[in-house]
Design brief:
The complex is a heterodimer of chains A (about 110) and B (about 120). With about 110 residues, chain A is mainly beta. Chain A is built from no helices and 11 strands. In chain B, strands 2, 4, 5, 6, 9, 10 and 11 form a 7-stranded mixed sheet that branches. Chain B has a 4-stranded antiparallel sheet with strand order 1-3-8-7, with no helix packed on it. The chains are: A mainly beta (about 110), B mainly beta (about 120). At the A-B interface, strand 4, strand 5 and strand 10 of A face strand 5 and strand 10 of B.
């Protein structure tokens, strides 16, 4: 199945550091979403982006919808241990009047206290 | 906020048996639900879109007769893995679109871990 490319695949960072991850696609999306998933649970929505160039924050998280509509990035500032998890981007596609979401490959974040 | 539940959370079955997984929207109605499959340390792969009152829409490569989807009501979709085999072992997650808040948000269920022996 189709997936979006996310980078990095994984990262270890020190508590207090800022984190940046991005998501790229060869296709245009009209909506970008960022989720966090913890082990054994379903993903939880962090940020939703609806317009090219849009920059949105949610606490220490900031995400942007790329101008080309083919990419998005997520930044986490001043990371804390509870930021550990897998972060997924998702793009919304609307084929033939319906809609569906395509997920990125994921970025696994580990924070060292 | 909106809540989506799944049942069971874990199931172990013998090869050849069928397993039914339920996805319920607890405080809102969902005419559409999505079913995903996730392998360990991998991303979510969309399997099918469940539509209330009509047939499910399956993604390319997903066997319709293997993964039966029934959207029985506005709050319930079921996924039945028929004649399960060990390669069907996976984490199955459903989601439902947000009923009235921000556009394009989805609420995910907690997932069902299927192990086929």
């Amino acid at each position: 199945g189709q997936q979006l490319n996310q980078s990095p695949q994984s990262m270890f960072i020190q508590e207090g550091e800022d984190v940046s991850m991005n998501c790229t696609s060869s296709s245009i999306f009209n909506t970008w979403l960022w989720y966090k998933q913890e082990p054994g649970e379903g993903p939880v929505l962090l940020i939703a982006l609806y317009k090219a160039g849009e920059l949105t924050s949610n606490g220490r998280l900031t995400a942007q919808f790329g101008i080309t509509r083919k990419d998005s990035f997520l930044n986490i500032s001043a990371s804390i241990p509870s930021d550990v998890g897998i972060y997924f981007c998702a793009g919304k596609r609307t084929p033939s009047g319906t809609y569906k979401y395509i997920f990125g490959t994921g970025t696994r974040l580990k924070v060292l206290a | 906020g909106a809540v989506v539940s799944q049942h069971p959370s874990r199931v172990i079955c013998k090869s050849g048996t069928s397993v039914k997984i339920e996805c319920r929207s607890l405080d809102f109605q969902a005419t559409t639900m999505f079913w995903y499959r996730q392998f360990p340390k991998k991303s979510l792969m969309l399997m099918a879109t469940s539509n209330e009152g009509s047939k499910a829409t399956y993604e390319q490569g997903v066997e319709k007769d293997k993964f039966l989807i029934n959207h029985a009501s506005l709050t319930l979709s079921t996924l039945t893995v028929t004649s399960a085999h060990p390669e069907d072992s996976s984490f199955y997650i459903c989601s439902a679109p947000n009923p009235g808040g921000l556009t394009d948000t989805q609420y995910f269920g907690p997932g069902t871990r299927l192990t086929v022996l």
